[in-house]
User: Fold this.
Amino acid sequence: MNRLRSITAPQFLLVLLVASAVVHAVHGVRLWDTSRLAVIDAVLVIAALVIAGMLARTLRTPAAQPVPLLSAAVVGAVGVATFLLPSVIALTQGRPLAGLFDGWAFAALIVDAIVVRIAIFALKRTLPTG
Assistant:
């Protein structure tokens, strides 16, 4: 009889990190000629893939390691900041927001916010209580 295995938070986080890398890669390519944020997107792609690799190496251990989980939370937070900071700066300077937002930027915001949430959830479970 086949039994379905439950998906753990680090496994789900691994999928989210790869999705974040893909979304940031597409967004960075779309912005490459017009904005310096494309460089930050490129750095986020590399960081997300490196952390996904670190996380994949630790999935075989019985307990998740805290370093890749914390790193994933930091990369996700930087990804969220790359969406929020340009919009706040544009609003304070009175510039329109039309050029800053597209579907890929919003997708990156959502995926990065979920990465932060799942990484913190998994990190809480790995740390000793007391």
